[in-house]
Amino acid sequence: MIDRDTKRLRKQAERDRRVEEIYQKDKKLYEIDQALRLTGIQLLQLALGKISLQEQEALSKKRSQLSEEREKRLKALGLDQKLYEVQWDCPQCHDRGWIDFGVKCTCLIQEEINTAFAQSGLTEEMKDQTFESFDLTWYKEQRDGLALAQKMDKVLALCRNFAREVIAGKRQKDLLFYGAVGTGKTHLSSAIANAVLAEGKSVVYRTISQIITTIYEAKFDFQNQGRQPEVLKGLRQADLVIIDDLGTEKTTEFVVQELFELINDRQRMGKPLLISTNMALRDLPSRYSMRTADRLITRSICIQFEGMSIRQLKAEK
């Protein structure tokens, strides 16, 4: 809102400069406007009882004459009354962001959505990966294609429902996607993120390496220590956190501990997670400890992605 106040002042200053430039070119228009301001001030004095009704009538008549004279002058200069108006980006709220007390303008809602998309971590390609663009045809063309496509149709419906639940703020199980590279995990993860973001909710979409790096820098990088509360709060309180490529990072004791803390905190707060990995579920305990695997597997809807790489099939096509 501070940015919006600054923007409003800038817009008003632009209007003042625009009018001043016209005044520099046409002194007559300046004189008419000055006379109009003076009559306006004098008429205001009526409310204070400082002028008579007779004087008011004379001032009102003079003001009408001046207004007509200004209109003619503007027409002669090829201008109109919009010269005096501030050119707001949003005429509905005059760039305030609020139409009425407690009622957000559509421009502010859209701005919040755009900001959420920018901060989510989604790439431009991922922003195009939606539920509508998820093509089941690629599964039908594979071995046992009909059964695979039917399964993925059910997965698609489940993911749509998961997104709806996140948007509604309902407590639910997490999602755990696992399976081979290129089988649709990233597309459906992006589709869920896009659906949630479009409703003005907050999403953090990062690879496990990016998540761990962010936590490490927030906690131990001297230059970033002031960001620790903000960064950790964002990871724990975002409406949805999506962790991609689990298992591709260098697994250390720090990684195992921080992953457990993040999963535990979000589950405790009823905040949903979506985790995607190429690993088999049976390999999770040995890599991330039994307690972390237990939190992931028993409190998630685990979906196995099967078949050939869609990316490879598209490239071959």
TrEMBL record:
Species annotation: Heliorestis convoluta
Pfam families linked to this entry: IstB_IS21
Molecular function, one GO term: ATP binding
UniProt xrefs under InterPro entries: AAA+_ATPase, IstB_ATP-bd, P-loop_NTPase
A GO biological-process term: DNA replication
SUPFAM superfamilies in UniProt: P-loop containing nucleoside triphosphate hydrolases
Domain AAA+ ATPase: 171-302
Protein name: DNA replication protein
